[in-house]
Description:
The complex is a heterodimer.
Chain A: E1 2-10, E2 16-25, E3 30-34, H1 41-48, E4 56-61, E5 64-65, H2 71-79, E6 81-84, H3 96-105, H4 111-124, H5 140-152, E7 158-162, H6 170-185, E8 189-193, H7 197-202, E9 207-211, E10 214-218
Parallel strand pairs in A: 3-8, 3-9, 6-7, 7-8
Antiparallel strand pairs in A: 1-2, 1-4, 4-5, 9-10
Helix pairs in contact in A: 3-4, 3-5
Chain B: H1 10-14, H2 38-76, E1 79-84, H3 92-104, E2 109-114, H4 117-123, H5 125-128, E3 141-147, H6 155-165, E4 169-173, H7 174-217, H8 219-227, H9 232-271, H10 276-285, H11 291-324
Antiparallel strand pairs in B: 1-3, 1-4, 2-3
Helix pairs in contact in B: 2-7, 2-9, 2-11, 3-6, 7-11, 9-11
Amino acid sequence: MVRFENVGLRYGMGPEVLKDINFSIAPRSFQYLTGPSGAGKTTLIRLVLMALKPTRGLVNLFGQDVSRLEAATLTDFRRRMGVVFQDFRLLDHLTVYENVALPLRVIGKEETSYRAEVVELLRWVGLGERMHAVPAVLSGGEKQRAAIARALISRPQLLLADEPTGNVDPGLGRRLLRLFMELQSLGTAVVIATHDIALMELYDAPRLVLADGHLHVDA
Amino acid sequence: MSMPEHLDMDEAEEERPRGSQRLPASLRRDQPLVPVDSVAGRALVVVIAILTFLAALSAGAAMLAARASEQWRGAVANEMTIQVRPDPRRNIEQDIARAVELARAVPSVAEARPMPRTESDKLLEPWLGAGLDLVELPVPRLIVLRLSSAVANDLVTFGQTLRREVPSATLDDHRLWVRRLSTMASTIILAGVAVVLLVLVAAGLAVAFATRGAMAGSRDSVEVLHFVGATDEFIAREFQTRFVALGLRGGAAGGFAAILAIALLGLLSSAWSATPEADQLQALFGAFEIGWSGYAVVVLVAAVVAAIAGLVSRLTVRHYLRAMG
Lengths: 219, 325
């Protein structure tokens, strides 16, 4: 599904922040992306999302080399991925319902065709009573769950979650982890970027460890 | 999406879907996906309203000049006058009769009507006032000629014959005057059109800057839209919709203000119609009315401003997104 070969990234003329990155993500897999703060976890996620271009190496997504992608294919690939940002990135002027429905709205679906599905998902993540609220009045945990619901609504093949438990208490963190495990069992490949060792010990899965710009896989 | 039944989340337990629970008809508020800052949005509406007002007034003035020019042409294009000046050595009535006789002999003259003394005296009333005895004054007499066609080649010869036969008479060709007035009117119309075009360009530039500002302010939202699978086309359409709405609001406000201003000027001109100044203005510009076609032009200007707002915002967004990409 995702394959990185000898990928390197530098910003401008600065030093390489990611060096010789090699890893792959198989369909229906579950893995952690870990490393100390500032190691480049978010940068690596942005490379997978094609928000950044590598300065060298090969990035292969869904069987295609991304360096030769057309804009339409790039959009199609993004529609097959769900992403939970560390800072949630909910649109402040939209309600929780509108935020979660966003991936369906941008592909031109009629609201009547997805209303029940969005409401069901919101109830599933415990936001059934908060669907009319705007992000400004939500707690950190509620925003986190809204961001997760938005990432899931389009049934992605790959879910990238950047520090999804970073803003919630340990209890909610554990519940969110169980949610991701459920998703994997439903067929989604899940990558969770975290530096929370306690969380990783709750569920054993391969770890992609980033340190000093290098990545190694800790199975 | 089929949800598992055993999600272990406290809140979820409490809010498990309730089978037959009915959903509201719509949960969307049709909020624009890309927020345009309300202060900047309002400022843009005001700028567009002012520009539309100016453009609509210019278009209205051009329409007024066009109508006035049409009226002048219609009134005098087929008319000429012979002016017979009083000369103590000559009998003016005989000169008039001779001039009329000569005029009637010209094929392109359909009618020659000597203007009675009372009527020509009346022409002086706006300048000299009513009730004056003008018998002692050497007031010229006029003969009004109605031409059978606008193209009259025999009038030059007629003018020469008239000068020879009746030395105190001169032939006034109104068509030269009409041509000059028409040139003046055309200049006014061209200036009006130029002002409208300049204002439209200014409106386009204002929208382009506002769009760039909105894009810079919405960079995060645009990035999120990209990540959730929005195409550049979709994002450009969202901005376009927003700016067309702002353009329509500004255009409608400016156009309405212009229609109001023109209608008010029309009312004021009819209220002052009894005064000599108003008569003079009416003689120059005709009735202060732009008619339904004029009002249609004002509405058209407002619509074009809104269309320009949409088009420019779309192009600006596409350019910005390409640069972002």
